[in-house]
Write a structure and sequence with these properties.
The complex is a heterodimer of chains A (289) and B (581).
Chain A: H1 3-33, H2 41-59, H3 63-90, H4 96-118, E1 133-136, E2 139-142, H5 143-165, H6 167-177, H7 179-184, H8 189-214, H9 224-235, H10 241-262, H11 267-281
Antiparallel strand pairs in A: 1-2
Helix pairs in contact in A: 1-5, 1-8, 1-9, 1-10, 2-3, 2-4, 2-8, 3-4, 3-8, 5-6, 5-8, 6-8, 9-10, 9-11, 10-11
Chain B: H1 3-24, H2 28-51, H3 61-79, H4 83-104, H5 110-129, E1 140-141, H6 155-179, H7 181-191, H8 193-197, H9 203-223, H10 225-229, E2 231-232, H11 234-237, H12 240-253, H13 259-278, H14 281-298, H15 302-314, E3 343-352, E4 355-365, E5 370-374, H16 381-389, E6 395-400, E7 403-404, H17 410-416, E8 418-421, H18 433-445, H19 458-468, H20 484-496, E9 502-506, H21 514-529, E10 533-537, H22 541-547, E11 550-555, E12 558-563, H23 565-570, H24 572-579
Parallel strand pairs in B: 5-10, 5-11, 8-9, 9-10
Antiparallel strand pairs in B: 1-2, 3-4, 3-6, 6-7, 11-12
The chains are: A mainly alpha (289), B alpha/beta (581).
């Protein structure tokens, strides 16, 4: 095992971890804080990738910039979806498993809709930085990975500040713990959850743009990320942004090392394997209470 | 209809249909389409054994299907094995992995279990992609050689006949499970796993049976798939569309009945085949997803749900014409060890993290004794109940009727004669009041074989107990529709139905009106006449004093007094705990 190989694996693992934080922070909000098991989250990420592709192909727009411009649309989609979910399941007190089946259906419908619209071929974007790689000695720093890393960290940290410093953010943290208490304080928990769910889908839109910067996408790519997006919040102890970053770091490095030393075809098993073990042996997460 | 005759008829019907169509229809496309629909009948029925009957959602149907398919591929490569052997092997392998998945339910419930099944599918997928012997990512060929067996004109016809038999078999299994003791136990698990365990249902064993049967049937359906397509690649057999279809079909047909998945698979499967020919493969997948979303939001009980709901209102008329027998004498009337206390708890200690909920509590209860257990909120009363019933494990020793309870699961304890009612009623919500009582009657009062059709011999007994608690007029009502006081009565009735020697009533009267309290007290006092010891946990002193021969007082996890009511009430320590200094 050579030094440079190890160093490169570590660096690309950390870069990957930054991207992983972006794809899973939305689940930390919806699953960890709101108790809504949005298994369709990865499908919305891929939807975000396609939105960035379309903007890039037709207007030549930068994927990251276009994602930020488009994020209100994703936010609105999330608000609508939560409204539907609330009216059909939460308000009627139906068991959460039906809600899960609902999102499973949404995942599938989104995926097939993308196939119908764009076909099953891989799509990618063109930007100036995508093929640039900076070198520091033996260590490569591909911008293709570094840009998503930086954008993701910025997004995750601003979410953390927003949630911990603002009244609304604290209300989101509170809604996961005691909805009734929140109601007695004069806050409408459904409104809070609707907006927070909108935020989580908006992060999926941005994460999708980051994904297409890293690799070409096809409609069913989202499935590979289901394990990842749930493993990270579960590892991180659910509903904590700091825990999400830590979970993302673990999985990013583990995936990168697996790909380097065992071959990339084994990499998808890492996140799902970690998820299985985390669920079976430590469901409260590494950093859970 | 008896299960054996149903199975025989189903299998014969499958054979006749397969034979006639083989003779009449010349177009092989017909058989290939029908094969696919029948394959979905098997998958949907198998999924429903776990998802609909037991309440555990499996997103990994494709993994079990693929296990069957890859068993066939490997056996074909290794031995050139005949198709019958491949089917058996596929069923066995998928069934074994199903058992493994069953053990996951020990730690994971609800959504976590569902996500874990998805993870399981993805991990298996990665292994298969990297498994060069079985073709890896490129896939593998299985070529059937020679003329089709048994006089079939083509292999597609032959495989269609096999799939028809497998579908008939799967549906028969589902129907049998539904009407058997096993099926009632599974339904109890689906409604409330803790309450099921406390009604004598061996939940782990039943869940393992359910996951193994569900996984095995899926593997069986997958085993013939390589022969059907001649070529299998990982993306095809692990396709998410198997998972979505096997969830959507029972949801659309109705999950609480064996016929639901069958109906859903025939409708949705048939529609998909029609769309695939006339429109496109992608549109038919879109339709499945869309129908799943529409049905789960708008008609969660599926098509069968509408018919069942109509049937239930019809059956709610009063159950007249029954001769109510008083419940048979309890098996505990006189214990040979009458001199020794029935329950001896010594040094029971339970910690939750740093918080000591119970700190070395001793409690003994004699046969037929009535003990009141009182103490302020948070003093550890319910924790003690949970330790005795086995839903919590603590330190210390608990002996019951001469046996050490340490290693016994709750369902074993209730079979020994320890029944408890829950502080917050936990009825089996999808069942009628009468069916709620059937669970302990089948599983706790005596040991019924699991694989026996539940013939309703316990109906008389259940009606007797309902009459004893004054609920006979509501025998047919859904338990979740009962009033608060009736739910408390049902909770007691369900405990009584296990024929206990010791009944622990955990705040059975909290929040009830004085008249309702008297009704519940009367039920408990009647237990004395049957020789059943009772521990009454209660805040209402009037009720405790009327009821108890002896009172024990818990404060902050310690027992501070134990004795006849008049002594205990005059104890200065008790006065301090209740009234302050």
């Amino acid at each position: 095992m050579s030094g440079p190989l190890l160093a490169n694996a570590l660096v690309s693992g950390l870069l990957l971890a930054g991207f992983y934080a972006a794809v899973s922070v939305g689940i930390s909000i919806s699953f960890g804080m709101l108790d809504v098991v949005n298994i369709a989250h990865p499908a919305f990420i891929v939807l975000g990738s396609y939105a960035a592709c379309v903007a890039n192909a037709s207007l030549g727009a930068d994927p990251v910039l276009s994602a930020i411009v488009l994020s209100p649309a994703f936010f609105a989609l999330g608000v609508f979806l939560y409204g539907l979910y609330y009216a059909s399941f939460e308000r009627r007190g139906r068991e959460p498993l039906r809600g899960l089946a609902f999102f499973f259906g949404i995942l599938f419908v989104t995926e097939v809709a993308l196939i119908l619209a764009f076909g099953v071929d891989y799509r990618s974007v063109t930007t100036r930085y995508i093929d640039t790689t900076l070198r520091f000695g033996a260590v490569d720093l591909p911008l293709r990975l570094f840009v998503p890393f930086a954008v993701s960290l910025a997004m995750t940290l601003s979410l953390q500040i927003f949630l911990s410093r603002t009244f609304f953010g604290r209300a989101v943290l509170a809604v996961g713990q005691d909805q009734l208490a929140l109601q007695l304080m004069g806050v409408d928990p459904v409104r809070i959850k609707r907006i927070a769910f909108g935020l989580s889908i908006a992060t999926a839109g941005v994460a999708g743009a980051l994904l297409v910067v890293i690799q070409p996408v096809q409609p069913s790519l989202g499935r590979e990320y289901i394990g990842l997006v749930f493993a990270i919040p579960v590892l991180g102890g659910m509903g904590s942004i700091a825990g999400t970053l830590a979970g993302a770091a673990i999985l990013g490095i583990a995936t990168s090392f697996t790909a380097t030393f065992f071959g990339p075809s084994w990499a998808p098993a890492v996140s799902f394997g970690v998820l299985l073990f985390a669920l079976a042996f430590r469901p409260s997460g590494l950093f859970g209470r | 209809m008896r299960t054996s005759s149903f199975t025989a008829i189903a299998l014969c019907a499958a054979l006749i249909v397969a034979g006639t169509t083989a003779a009449l229809v010349k177009n092989d496309y017909f058989f290939s389409a029908s094969y696919t629909v029948l394959q979905f009948v098997v998958l949907a029925t198998a999924w429903n054994l776990l998802g609909g009957f037991t309440g555990y959602v499996n997103f990994g149907s494709a993994a079990f299907f693929a296990l069957g398919a890859y068993s066939s591929i490997v056996l074909d490569k290794l031995l050139g094995a005949p198709i019958a052997l491949s089917i058996l092997a596929g069923t066995a392998v998928a069934g074994l992995v199903g058992v493994g998945m069953g053990y996951l339910t020990l730690r994971l419930r609800g959504v976590f279990f569902a996500i874990a099944t998805l993870a399981l599918a993805e991990v298996l997928f990665t292994f298969v992609v990297n498994w060069d012997y079985a073709g890896g990512a490129r896939g593998a060929y299985v070529v059937l050689q020679g003329p089709p067996p048994l006089g079939f004109r083509s292999y597609v016809q032959f495989l269609f006949a096999i799939m028809a038999l497998m579908a008939a078999f799967a549906v028969s299994v589902a129907r049998f499970v539904q009407v058997s003791t096993l099926g009632r136990g599974l339904a109890a698990i689906r409604d409330d796993e803790v309450a099921a365990e406390c009604s004598g249902v061996p939940t782990l064993r039943l869940k393992l049976i359910s996951t193994a049967a569900s996984g095995g049937l899926m593997g069986m359906a997958g085993a013939t798939f390589p022969y059907f397509l001649s070529y299998v690649e990982p993306h095809g057999v692990f396709s998410l569309s198997y998972a979505v279809n096997s969830i959507a079909m029972p949801l659309i047909g109705g999950m609480y009945d064996w016929a639901g998945p069958l109906l859903g698979a025939l409708l949705l499967g048939g529609l998909q085949q029609a769309l695939q020919v006339n429109v496109s493969a992608d549109w038919n997948l879109f339709l499945v997803g869309a129908l799943l979303v529409v049905f789960v939001t708008a008609a969660p009980d599926g098509i069968m749900g509408w018919t069942l709901r109509r049937g239930r209102t019809a059956s709610r008329r009063p159950l007249g014409g029954h001769h109510f027998k008083t419940a048979p004498a309890c098996r505990s009337m006189v214990s040979p060890l009458a001199s020794a206390p029935l329950l001896i708890a010594q040094g029971v200690t339970k910690r939750f993290g740093g918080f000591v909920a119970l700190d070395g509590v001793d409690l003994s209860v004699g046969a037929g004794e009535r003990v009141g257990l009182i103490g302020p909120n948070g003093s550890g009363k319910s924790t003690l109940v949970n330790c005795i019933a086995g839903t919590l494990r603590g330190a210390g020793s608990i002996r019951f009727d001469g046996r050490d309870l340490a290693s016994l699961a709750p369902h074993r304890r209730i079979r020994l004669g320890i029944a408890r009612s829950f502080q917050i009623p936990r009825p089996f919500a999808s069942m009628s009041a009468l069916d709620n009582l059937r669970i302990p009657l089948l599983y706790a009062a005596r040991a019924h074989p699991l694989l026996q059709r539940s013939r309703g011999q316990e109906t008389e007994e259940a009606l007797g107990i309902l009459r004893q608690v004054g609920l006979e007029a509501k025998a047919g009502h859904l338990s979740r529709e009962l009033t608060q006081v009736d739910m408390r009565k049902l909770e007691l009735a369900r405990a009584i139905a296990s024929r206990p020697k010791l009944l622990i009533a955990d705040e059975a009267m909290a929040g009830l009106s004085p008249a309702e309290v008297d009704e519940i007290l009367a039920i408990l006092l009647e237990m004395k006449g049957r020789g059943v010891a009772v521990i009454l946990i209660e805040h209402m002193m009037r009720a405790v004093l009327r009821f108890s021969e002896r009172i024990a007082v818990l404060v902050a996890g310690r027992k501070i007094a134990d004795g006849p009511p008049e002594t205990v009430l005059r104890d200065p320590a008790v006065e301090r705990a209740y009234l302050g200094q």
